[in-house]
Specification:
58% of the residues lie in helices and 5% in strands. It has 253 residues and is mainly α. Among the domains are: 76 residues, Recoverin, domain 1; 73 residues, Recoverin, domain 1, CATH 1.10.238. The strands form two sheets. It has a two-stranded antiparallel sheet with strand order 1-2. A two-stranded antiparallel sheet has the order 3-4. Helix 10 crosses helix 11.
Length: 253
């Protein structure tokens, strides 16, 4: 008897009975049945159910939403800024560190007028200072700032200027962050204008500027920053961009 493939298929289809429950199953139900066959699949299904999914968006806390949460957030931010400022070196602490650097400097020859310090003396100065200074006395900083012409030696002027610049950036970032109404690392035009208005009285070159012109000056400064730092016209600029662009250095000179 010759084997007929088509007849075999027809006989098989006749004997196949499909219940109504199976007919109504969709792809998602088949997937769930398959995943429930082992413990790993069950755990994945629990995560997909939405119970363990993280929150992707948290609305901004304002006094209109919740007065208590808004006040708590403001108090927490204030304490955070105070703690960050307390970690910065004061002028007296900088003077003390400078005196130690001068005591441990190494005289190379009469033709080099800059004062240098080698790594051994660098560590000795570190050991005489408190933990507040430790972040500046890392081996990586010594290697990055060492003189390219005199290997193994670091100019104490270069090192001290680096510390001063780092402290200035931290202070300025802290000051800008206090005007960040959203707390997301951005400043809106209103936030940045408020910062400039509070900054104007502290600028020596603007002491003779009358208060009636403060708004005009702040508007001009804000327009310049947003023109260059907000090319997509989103209405906000990142604090880190303000610090890195160099415009703020020109403003404070």
């Amino acid at each position: 008897m010759d084997f007929n493939y088509e007849n075999c298929i027809k006989e098989g289809l006749k004997n196949l009975t499909i219940t109504s429950a199976v007919k109504n199953k969709n792809e998602e139900e088949y997937f769930k049945e398959f995943m429930q066959q082992d413990e790993t699949g069950v755990n994945i299904l629990k995560r997909l159910s939405g119970n363990d999914l993280p929150t992707f968006y948290i609305p901004q806390i304002t006094e209109e939403v919740n007065i208590f949460k808004a006040q708590l957030r403001a108090e927490a931010r204030g304490r955070f800024f105070e703690r960050e400022l307390s970690r910065l070196l004061t002028s007296e602490e900088l003077k003390y560190m400078w005196s130690l650097l001068q005591e441990h400097h190494t005289s190379l020859n009469n033709f080099i007028h800059n004062q240098y310090i080698n790594y051994k003396s660098f560590i000795q100065v570190k050991q005489k200072l408190s933990d507040k200074y430790k972040s500046f006395f890392n081996p990586s900083i010594f290697l990055q700032l060492q003189d390219s012409n005199i290997k193994g030696y670091l100019s104490i002027d270069t090192f001290f200027n680096y510390i001063m610049k780092k402290i200035w950036i931290d202070q300025t970032r802290n000051g800008l962050s206090q005007y960040d109404s959203s707390g997301c690392g951005y400043l809106s035009e209103a936030d940045f204008e408020a910062y400039i208005l509070d900054l104007i009285p502290t600028l020596t070159q603007l002491k003779k500027l009358e208060k009636m012109f403060y708004s005009f000056y702040s508007c001009m400064v804000v327009r310049k920053f947003f023109f260059y730092l907000d090319p997509l016209r989103t209405g906000k600029i990142r604090i880190i961009d303000i610090l890195s662009c160099g415009f703020l250095d020109e403003l404070l000179e």
